[in-house]
Design brief:
single chain, alpha/beta, Spore Coat Polysaccharide Biosynthesis Protein SpsA, Chain A, eight-stranded mixed β-sheet, Nucleotide-diphossugar_trans, Glyco_trans_2-like, Glycosyltransferase 2-like domain-containing protein
Length: 311
């Protein structure tokens, strides 16, 4: 009787759209990061409707590496792409890499061993944000991690400290994602789903130093805000109280405050303005002001918005 092949420890989802200037470096960085574990890792490589040389570069990489499974789709929608990629994964854990980012050498190799040994539901790592002006050359150091409670993980996420609403650079047990779907958004799809992942995960470990190089480029999808993207951001923010419930209401309120503070001139729909303002009006002033978890700067923003009647 033939023995069933063991599932790979790690499935690495790589999504690309018109990334010909970056995708070679992205794929090379993954190879170097996986090191000796590369051949036993699974790479799910997706080109979504590229019109440049992204397809050719990805196709060649898949031809050169037996553990790379390459798909070309025409969704023009990152939410659909992520769902499609998840349906193809067979690894015990899933991580995601965008086609214009990179990961540090040997990091995935060490992390694969950590996942096998510690067997967490969720391994969270801090992203390394790389700006055009960044001079420091980052290297992968000693792998330090600690267990954190679900409450601590949710709090870190909500105050936007160490944990952001991105699946890139995070490692999720595949079973956690099995009955979940990303919304079919062109952006903020991860912000919508991330709260559900945090709530569903029992054993969570966290590293302050992560493997992921998140390049913050001018003209990126997340930097070009328009009314459609604001609508998606509002929908993603509305998901937070549905998932996190009453306990975190003041920290969730901070997201509504930031949304109106940063984007009030970008909200064109009166219905959406009413939605945002209604969430702000539901904030209990006393509870919010005296909550030690809420930053002073956020309290000042709220008072300023309140005095202007949220206009």
């Amino acid at each position: 009787m033939m023995r069933e092949a063991k599932a790979p420890v790690l499935s690495i989802i790589v999504t690309a759209h018109n990334s010909e200037d970056y995708i070679k470096k992205t794929l090379l960085s993954i190879s170097r990061s996986a090191g000796s574990s590369f051949d036993s890792s699974e790479i799910i490589l997706i080109d979504d409707a590229s019109t440049d040389r992204t397809y050719e570069i990805c196709h060649q990489f898949s031809q050169d590496n037996l553990n790379v499974v390459f798909y070309r789709v025409n969704f023009n929608n990152i939410g659909k792409v992520r769902n499609y990629a998840l349906s193809k994964c067979t690894g015990q854990y899933i991580t995601m890499v965008d086609g214009d980012d990179e990961v540090l050498p040997f990091a995935f190799e060490e992390i694969s061993g950590l996942l096998e040994k510690e067997n967490p539901d969720l391994y969270l790592t801090k992203l390394n944000e790389i700006y055009p002006s960044s001079q420091e050359k980052l290297q992968w150091g000693k792998l330090n991690f600690r267990a954190i409670s679900g409450d601590r993980a949710i709090t870190k996420f909500l105050i936007h400290k160490d944990i952001q609403a991105h699946f890139i650079g995070q490692f999720v047990r595949r079973e956690i994602l099995a009955d979940m779907q990303f919304p079919e958004f062109e952006c903020y799809e991860d912000a919508y789903l991330f709260p559900s992942i945090l709530v569903k995960s029992s054993k969570i470990i966290f590293s302050h130093h992560g493997p992921y190089l998140y390049f913050k480029r001018d003209g990126s999808l997340s930097n070009n805000i328009n009314k459609e993207k604001i609508s998606l951001l509002i929908k993603a923010t509305e998901q937070m109280p549905l998932v996190f419930k009453e306990k975190y209401k003041n920290l969730i309120a901070c997201h509504w405050i930031n949304l109106l503070h940063k984007h009030k001139n970008d909200i064109y729909s009166e219905k959406e303005k009413t939605t945002v303002i209604s969430h702000l009006k539901n904030i209990s002033l006393i509870s919010f002001i005296f909550d030690p978890k809420v930053r002073l700067s956020m309290k000042k923003k709220y008072i300023k918005l309140r005095r202007s009647n949220f206009r």
